[in-house]
Design a protein that fits this description.
By secondary structure, this protein is an all-alpha fold. The protein has four helices and no strands. It has helices at 2-38, 46-70, 77-87, 89-101.
């Protein structure tokens, strides 16, 4: 039951995570541009920026874990690290399962 639910939801989660991570990255770049160009951030968006920074930091940590872990288990660890940055925990789960199937 859980495996079938996971296989049905995984592609949707990957797409949603990729879109949201790319949006968070774009939002952070926009905020940095506003700060550098105009000397101030957007008012009233503080909680959104805090949340997107948390997401980017969490995905960055997952990406570093994938880079280190994939170095011995995947042919191109840097590519897998970027993939994990955008899809999040799903990428790490796939990497851990890849290790189990190659033993």
């Amino acid at each position: 039951m859980l495996v079938t639910l996971e296989t049905k939801l995984s592609p949707s989660i990957k797409v949603l995570a990729t879109v949201l991570t790319a949006s968070a990255l774009g939002l952070e770049l926009w905020n940095q541009y506003e700060w550098w160009a105009h000397g101030a951030s957007l008012q009233g968006w503080g909680w959104v920026f805090a949340f997107e920074r948390f997401v980017l930091i969490a995905h960055g940590i997952e990406s570093l874990v994938a880079l280190v872990y994939a170095a011995s288990r995947h042919p191109s660890p840097l590519r897998y690290s970027v993939y994990t940055f955008f899809v999040g925990t799903i990428g790490l789960i796939e990497l851990f399962r890849l290790e189990k199937t190659n033993e």
